[in-house]
Amino acid sequence: xxxxxxxxxxxVAFSSCVMAEFVGFQDNxxxxxxxxxxxxxxxxxxxxxxxxxxxxxxEDKYQFxxxxxxxTVEIDKDKWGGLSVNTQDKLELSGExxxxxxxxxxxxxxxxxxxxxx
Length: 118
Hints:
The structure is a single chain. The protein is an alpha/beta fold. The protein has helices at about 1-20, 35-40; strands at about 30, 45-55, 60-65, 70-75, 90-100, 105-115. Strands 2-3-4-6-5 form a five-stranded mixed barrel. Strand 2 and strand 3 form a beta hairpin.
């Protein structure tokens, strides 16, 4: 019975290590840009924009606005990091531009709240 408990404890400890989420390389050298400039950038460009979410378009797509324009951003549930935001909160979004036909979407990797609504 002792051997079983030891083996079970080792398996649990090992599985928690294996199941820990790998974050990977975080590139801090992204290009901070405006939305107008972002819409002109090439596919797969990695950028950072600052502004506000104006409205939710679907489960993971939002309309994002800065002083120069608006664009669609895609923020998967796991990218929110527990943040709660509204349209008054200023955010910084970093991710990769995805161009398809005549549209561009920012596929967001990180969401940072810069300022909170009052």
